[in-house]
Amino acid sequence: MEEQVLWDSSCDPESSSVFERDRHIFYLEMMYQLLPSPYQAQEINRLTLAYFIISGLDILRALDRIDKNAVINWVLSLQAHPQSEGTLEKGQFYGFHGSRSSQFHSNDTRSAIPNGSHLASTYCALSILKTVGYDLSLIDSDLLLKSMKNLQRPDGCFMPIHTGGETDLRFVFCAAAICSILKNWSGMDREKAKEYIIKCQSYDGGFGLIPGSESHGGATYCAVASLQLMGFLEEDLLSKNAPCHVINVPLLLDWSLQKQAQDGGFQGRANKPADTCYAFWVGGVLKILGADKFINEKALREFLLTCQSEYGGFSKFPRLLPDLYHSYYGFCAFSLLEEPGLNSLCVQLGITHKKLGD
Ligand SMILES: [Zn+2]
């Protein structure tokens, strides 16, 4: 009997050599309607998950798939408000809660909704509102920003929440992005934040999350994007041959380029496997510096396509199931690679460019 070809590898959806835009839209729409149970543990970060979905659909030019008014009303319902009009109470922060459950009353007191508003949730809330075209002048920016200033520490770094928590570059970035989106810098001392960021640059050129810690792709993005948003780093610096006296740019460039691994993907730290999200974190740093022309784009694209799921979305490593976080940064990476049919990214804010008046 003649041997039958049961499986033709050229038909293997996992080995697709194109960016599967329609499948990605389908994947995000599915997540918009109902989050699968593995996301249960991340309930507290629901706003962040919504940011990945909504901003992801925006990159894919498919924002028409969502009910924008419903999204706006839901996001606004997560904002923390002072008990009495216009007062700042005990250093509290009036940003956004990460989810409905963090607004629940505790069992013993029925008096007040606890204020669990968080810098990261606030960054995601404002990003979503900007993405769906909400008029941000309707937000009480003064109260939000004045109360955000309470979160900045004497060393320039930020706490994520008024009750404390770890302080590191992630929250400096959130604060800078919030001020940039609201076009009002009264919420932070930029000079102090700059001093803190400078202390986080390591001997090898990358940045650690706190001074003295190991260089890391995510921390390096937070440092460079914050400096750019705060006006300390000119955009496209290398192409313009502009001098920079704030940080060591040649060393940073060196470190960033060395993070492109043998398989074409970017690693977050030396000697770690390449991972989808660092194509954005480290690729984004190179883009902000105007050095993205030094990326081996063909190899990066090939690596990313091995992480593209047959169900839509991207996984962390090749041939795993997709997750929202890596899917979003996969879409961002393809936008940086100028994939046709995608909206372009404002790298330092992590959302798409909006035309004037949007
Ligand atoms: Zn990752």
Describe the structure.
By secondary structure, the protein is an all-alpha fold. The protein has 2 domains: 25-188, Glycosyltransferase (Alpha/alpha barrel), CATH 1.50.10; 231-358, Alpha/alpha barrel (Glycosyltransferase), CATH 1.50.10.20. Helices cover 39% and strands 1% of the residues. The chain has helices spanning 21-33, 46-59, 68-76, 119-131, 141-148, 169-182, 190-199, 217-229, 249-258, 278-289, 297-306, 324-336, and strands at 345-346, 351-352. Strands 1-2 form a two-stranded antiparallel sheet. A hairpin with a 4-residue loop joins β1 (345-346) and β2 (351-352). α2 (46-59) runs parallel beside α12 (324-336). The longest helix has 14 residues, at 46-59. Residues 1-11 have low confidence and may be disordered. Bound molecules: zinc ion (ZN). Zinc ion binds at residues 275-277, 316, 326. One of its GO terms (cellular component) is CAAX-protein geranylgeranyltransferase complex. This is Geranylgeranyl transferase type-1 subunit beta. Keywords: Magnesium, Metal-binding, Prenyltransferase, Repeat, Transferase, Zinc. GO terms for molecular function: CAAX-protein geranylgeranyltransferase activity; metal ion binding.
How many structural domains can be distinguished in the coordinates? 2
The CATH architecture term of the largest domain is Alpha/alpha barrel
CATH top level of the largest domain?
A: Mainly Alpha
- Oligomeric state of the chains in view: single chain
CA-based shape? globular
Heterogens: zinc ion
Beta-strand percentage range: under 5%
Kindly report the spatial arrangement of strands forming the biggest sheet.
Answer: 1-2
Query: Over the alpha carbons, how many angstroms does the gyration radius reach?
Result: 21 Å
Total strand segments: 2
